[in-house]
Amino acid sequence: MLRIGSSIAVALAEAANAAGYAPSIHNTQPWHWRVLPDRLQLFADRSRQLAATDPDGKLLTLSCGGALQHARLALLAEGWAAQVRYLPDPADPDLLAELVELERVEATPEAMRMVQAMRTRHTDRRPVSDERIPAAVSAAMVGAAGDLARIHLLTGDQVIELAAAAHHAGEIEADDPMIRAELAYWTSKSAPAGTGLPQDVLPARQPETMVPARDFGTPGTLPIGPGHDDHARYALLYGDDDEPTAWLRAGAALTQVWLTAVHAGVSLVPLSGAVEVTTTRQTLRGIIAGLGYPYLVMRWGILDPAHAGPPHTPRMRTSQTVDLAAVTREG
Ligand SMILES: Cc1cc2nc3c(=O)[nH]c(=O)nc-3n(C[C@H](O)[C@H](O)[C@H](O)COP(=O)(O)O)c2cc1C
After folding, report:
1. Architecture per CATH, 135-301
2. Of 40, 52, 187, 319, which one has the greatest count of Cβ atoms within 10 A?
3. Looking at residue 71, what is its pLDDT?
4. pLDDT for the residue numbered 308
5. How far does residue 133's CA lie from ligand 1's centre (Å)?
6. Is 3 helix (H, G, I), strand (E, B) or coil?
């Protein structure tokens, strides 16, 4: 039987497992973890990068940043604080980050709550209800990003601008055969086992919302009611920088905001179409008056609790994403 050598290595391996719950663009899970005796390394797995939709790998990097924060929170909930070292090896740009210098701390209830929320968090693309998000909850979600990235809550006029941009991005992507093929692949059984979007998490028809949701090109089987997005809030995650570290930090911010939302009973749907297309990304930049770089649009809202949400999307087996070779021995 294979055994893991030390208690730190066990905690690191468990953190890498917990990171598997993280959201990722098209559920590509584009990460790979290496557990070392004293650190946890996060690599990009370019074999699951969306070459047409995300040629620069920015949304891959954001997805990996989200997974990194999952690992960090899982360690905290077990009483380990870790430092993050971004891009520690200039010779290996796929080594995105490592968690190092582990120190014993008291596990906080806050970290434990966040870890619980990891297991229930999921993307629910149905329209939102008429219930508004209380101002204190929106403020807590904005605050949850801390100094990782910034969040701008859109005004009514800006939502109209966003709607036009999202619509335009959808048209451009629908006209691109490579992007269409990529979507078809990740929503089909051809996607690698445990990845992609099965039919039962996708709405049976496009919801009638002001800001169009991503059209996955294939109807799902998730029943949706007549709702809309009149009472949704749209938020833009952005920051000062367009470099990989900033996209990793944006992913960590998304994790913080989303897990806070789960705890408060708020549904969050990422909308990345308008970020993927250069011209509409410029429109988003205009919304923040050119004061930063847009990373992701989010829809925040309250769903009707009377109706069951979609099932959880699948995940890859951890044996495929976590390399334990350096910390296991026969015994
Ligand atoms: C960077 C990023 C971009 C995403 N973009 C969209 C999007 O445009 N539309 C959408 O419906 N879901 C989007 N998602 C949600 C993913 O499809 C979802 O996280 C993934 O399928 C895993 O499902 P889960 O969140 O239910 O665990 C995005 C997620 C991430 C991390």
Report:
1. 3-Layer(aba) Sandwich (3.40)
2. 40
3. 98
4. 77
5. 21
6. strand
